Amino acid sequence: MAQHSKKFIEVLDKAMAEGEKMTREEKLFTYKGIAYPTTVCSPEIFKALESFKARSDDVILAGYPKSGTNWVGHILTDLVTTTAKNDGDETNGSNDEQQGEFPYLEIGDVDKYQRMEKMPSRRVIFTHLIPPNLPVSVFKNKAKVLLLIRNPKDVATSFYHFSNSLSPLPSYETFDEFFTAFMTGQMPWGSYFDYIFEWNKHAADENVMTITYEELKENRASGVKRIAEFFDLPLTEEEIQGVVKRSSFQAMKDNSQESHGAFGQTLFRKGDVSDWKNLFNEDQNQEMDKTFEERLAGSQLGAKLKYDTYCKA
Ligand SMILES: Nc1ncnc2c1ncn2[C@@H]1O[C@H](COP(=O)(O)OS(=O)(=O)O)[C@@H](OP(=O)(O)O)[C@H]1O
């Protein structure tokens, strides 16, 4: 099944071609104190985004870059599309394929949000944004949000390799150089610690469900079932197993040329837990452990991340 497709590949191919021609300094711009890639975001889009009207039946996925958003986005799209087909409705679920929109909310053009008003329910929407930068209607209209989080050492590892393979992002000579940027929040979409800190304020909301990359790796079937229940998507056991099968790392990687084009070769890298052990040195481990302890250790999301299990050797 082609979950993404033409529009998705078109946006990414264009970004990669533009990125090739840019200097390091040109690749990011800052909006309200947070950096974003120039090739896919702009201050004009952020202004237009304020007018976006969320619906209570929207299916929203929130995750910091490199947390596995394409993976869980694929699961969500598959769940919504399967439910819609059962209802005899072939028009919703795969926004991108059928509606021609890029699934990440903050990526697109200034007219995107007007077009989205015409899209039938249920719309599947991904975002890397923190709650204060989301349109107010998301919380006001009680849209359901699935919050995806991943242990910070693997997020940093994935982001480092991604930055060095993808032309729209600034690259780094050494992991140490990247690590400094990551720890000081000089990253596209800002600091991961700020991200968790801000989302933690909504972790107890009844319309927000949190899932971790690691628990999904541990037991995909159980995670898929929980997600389907949260969004009231009534699939049969057989249909759930189909979604589980189609969302394995290997299945998605094998389908990546069709789903993500050239970008897929960079995106589907390892899909593992603990790859940070191949990159972090002792000083970097200590520094991140300390920052986690100071910023997130006592919080609800901090506990969900199971830092000691996943980030300590
Ligand atoms: N099916 C499946 N199973 C497990 N892991 C998967 C899967 N699909 C993608 N991935 C991994 O998710 C990481 C990319 O995260 P994102 O999709 O959020 O990246 S992006 O910010 O949107 O570019 C990236 O992690 P790393 O491999 O550690 O770099 C992908 O490999």
TrEMBL record:
EC number(s) on file: 2.8.2.-
Stored Pfam families: Sulfotransfer_1
Quote the InterPro entries the UniProt record gives. Answer: P-loop_NTPase, Sulfotransferase_dom
Record's keyword terms, sorted: Transferase
Ranges for domain Sulfotransferase: 57-299
Q: Where are the transmembrane segments?
A: none
Q: Which GO terms describe its molecular function?
A: sulfotransferase activity
Q: Which family does it belong to?
A: Belongs to the sulfotransferase 1 family.
Per its UniProt record, what PANTHER family does this chain match? SULFOTRANSFERASE SULT (PTHR11783)
* Name this polypeptide is given: Sulfotransferase
